[in-house]
Design the sequence.
């Protein structure tokens, strides 16, 4: 078309110039942000590089040493893959490495004794039970274990810390401190009241009455089944703690309960009640220990670096950790919630690598998960089953603090399941639904109009409740998932349909209770699982065995990518320390988006 044939030639040219100018400006902004982002990362690396300890030399083990362990430091089930931690030289302790180091130290002639410190610890109940047994084994080698505590909590919440301390030969606390051994409590938030006020209607369904994760949204108070389950858990934890503390401290259970009911106790009262052995300042006590053994203190992290693992090519047992919520996609760490997310795609990739390693003769799967997405858990379960079929190796599951719902689903792929007495497991059930915002929109004066092509196109719309037909369809889907879940558990655990109904329906069990109902095979920790794996793989006791840990440490490039894509984590670690209780509540609520998850609850002790 020629210029004079166009209806508005001048305005058209002007519009084209405006469009081209806008495109140029848009590209300029994108490039500018990219350059600024790159400059920011470079500057950040330079700053972190300057902060990182230069030329840090790991201390060799002295000829006469006392191993020092700070149980207040953050302990992770997975190895630290944070580039900031790498650059700063400050990394989280890995739980398996901690256990391994103590076991090695028990037979190291240079290590004369062990001294632990604890006040407020991030360790979970099952981890503490695993550590208690490790300390007992250390003592069996003829060496002493000492524990120093500035205090055990403040006005309470020191029970689990004292539970770990009780197994040491000598417990020492600071003058004028407290021993907050106040017992066990559960706290569960209920939000239905506030949701009603703002016009939000939670519409959720579960299989069945004990699958109570969404009660926190749908109810105003605790239902009878919910309360019954928490009572079962709480009484089980309390009784186990009382008995173990009484045995370790050579007291009667009545004496322990009497002390708990009087707590928090002053250091003088705790000494009189025989809960502790001495009162002293830390620096004085540590000096006395060093003099008694004529030894130098060596930190656990330094000692670990001196441990020589067996070389590649030797017989290996793979240790695969599934930590945190189970979800689709890649594994990640939610810095805001301080929550690990294990992605099914990542685990399947790791299983493929394990399958291709000809030196791997057994697999131990460490499950420390409250559950998550059913499809993701199903994918991981199927991946482990495929590995067993192809590689013909034994698979042993070690349960951590939690292995419930989707976490238990993954565990049934194991030939044997090992749990600590205080592991929380079971929760065999499923739930799902949606938040209906219809009344909220009315309050705000917002009107939604919908066009649907297909009778059920809006089934998950948050703007309208389920219709009767949609409700029936949704519940049928839950029935299918529940049937699949329970049938797979029944087959894996050789449980009849009748007994399965008694064990499922969302019921939650402690590891000790789960053993009684045959949901697990043995009580113990990681070392127990590894020993079972070695025996099942017919690996000789004197044969050199390498533990191949998964997930493996990331490359520098992968850590850099994680830094760029999840930079908010850089500023969250200190926030998590300062506002741990509040963020713990956020973590519990964040889990509600999954359909195979434990109910949100906070255990106070």
Sequence:
């Amino acid at each position: 078309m020629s210029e004079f044939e166009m209806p508005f030639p001048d305005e058209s040219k002007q519009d084209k110039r405006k469009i081209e100018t806008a495109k140029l400006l848009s590209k300029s902004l994108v490039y500018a942000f990219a350059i600024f982002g790159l400059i920011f990362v470079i500057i950040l690396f330079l700053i972190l590089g300057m902060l990182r300890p230069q030329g840090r030399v790991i201390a060799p083990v002295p000829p006469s040493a006392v191993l020092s362990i700070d149980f207040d430091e953050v302990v992770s089930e997975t190895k630290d893959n944070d580039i900031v931690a790498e650059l700063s030289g400050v990394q989280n302790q890995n739980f398996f490495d901690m256990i391994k180091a103590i076991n090695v130290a028990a037979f190291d002639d240079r290590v004369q004794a062990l001294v632990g410190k604890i006040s407020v610890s991030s360790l979970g109940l099952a981890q503490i039970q695993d550590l208690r047994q490790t300390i007992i084994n250390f003592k069996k080698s003829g060496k002493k274990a000492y524990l120093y505590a500035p205090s055990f909590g403040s006005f309470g919440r020191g029970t689990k810390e004292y539970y770990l301390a009780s197994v040491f030969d000598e417990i020492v606390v600071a003058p004028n401190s407290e021993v907050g051994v106040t017992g066990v409590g559960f706290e569960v938030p209920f939000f239905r009241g506030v949701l009603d006020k703002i016009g939000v209607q939670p519409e959720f369904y579960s299989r069945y009455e004990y699958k109570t994760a969404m009660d926190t949204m749908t109810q105003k108070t605790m239902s009878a089944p919910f309360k019954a389950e928490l009572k079962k858990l709480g009484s089980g934890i309390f009784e186990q703690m009382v008995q173990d503390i009484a045995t370790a401290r050579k007291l009667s259970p009545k004496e322990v309960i009497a002390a708990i009911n009087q707590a928090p106790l002053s250091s003088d009262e705790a000494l009189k009640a025989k809960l502790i052995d001495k009162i002293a300042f830390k620096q004085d006590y540590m000096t006395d220990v060093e003099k008694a053994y004529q030894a130098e203190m060596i930190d656990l992290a330094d000692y670990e670096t001196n441990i020589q693992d067996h070389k590649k090519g030797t017989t290996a047992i793979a240790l695969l950790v599934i930590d945190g919520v189970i979800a689709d996609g890649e594994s990640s760490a939610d810095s805001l919630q301080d929550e690990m997310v294990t992605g099914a795609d990542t685990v399947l990739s790791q299983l493929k690598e394990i399958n291709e390693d000809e030196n791997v003769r057994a697999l131990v799967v460490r499950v420390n998960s409250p559950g998550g997405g059913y499809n993701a858990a199903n994918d991981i379960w199927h991946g482990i089953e495929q590995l067993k079929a192809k590689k013909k190796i034994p698979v042993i599951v070690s349960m951590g603090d939690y292995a419930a719902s989707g976490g238990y689903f993954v565990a049934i792929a194991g030939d044997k399941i090992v749990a600590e007495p205080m592991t929380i497991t079971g929760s065999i059930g499923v739930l799902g639904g949606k938040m209906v915002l219809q009344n909220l929109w009315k309050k705000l004066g917002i009107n939604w109009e919908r066009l649907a092509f297909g009778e059920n196109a809006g089934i998950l719309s948050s703007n309208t409740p389920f219709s009767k037909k949609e409700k029936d369809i949704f519940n049928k889907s839950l029935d299918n998932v529940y049937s699949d879940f329970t049938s797979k558990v029944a087959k894996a655990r050789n449980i009849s349909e009748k007994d399965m109904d008694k064990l499922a329906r969302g019921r939650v069990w402690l590891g000790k209770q789960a053993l009684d109902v045959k949901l697990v095979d043995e009580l113990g920790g990681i070392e127990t699982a590894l020993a079972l794996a070695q025996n099942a793989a017919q690996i000789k006791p004197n044969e050199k065995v390498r533990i191949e840990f998964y997930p493996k440490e990331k490359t520098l490039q992968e850590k850099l990518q994680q830094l760029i894509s999840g930079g908010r984590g850089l500023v969250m670690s200190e926030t998590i320390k300062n506002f741990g209780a509040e963020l713990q509540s956020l973590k519990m609520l964040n889990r509600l988006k999954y359909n195979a998850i434990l109910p949100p609850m906070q255990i106070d002790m």
About this structure: The chain is about 45% helix and 20% strand. The two ends are 82 Å apart (CA to CA). The longest helix spans residues 9-51. The mean pLDDT is 85.
